[in-house]
Amino acid sequence: MPVLNFSYAKIRNADLFRDYVQRAAPLMEAMGVEVLARGNFARVLRGEACSGEVAAVFRYPDMTAAERFYSSPEYQPLIPLRDAACDMTIHLHEE
Asked: What are phi and psi of 69, to 5 degrees?
């Protein structure tokens, strides 16, 4: 069953975040992760504000593929960079 990854990042350092994205993108492509959407926060219709946040939606073939990506030896060195660049929330949803 395909899995959707909804990621939300509150940027703390734009330069580090750009570096993280540039380094993560080729890895995602190599591991078959499909980018469905990316966007910058615009406004709130309901709920709490999240200014400064960017969001992205990715599709993995299944939960195993999502877990394999995040636990991969290639992704592990990017975690400190990601965490220095932003506060990120990652939600996985079965499609």
From this structure: -60, -55
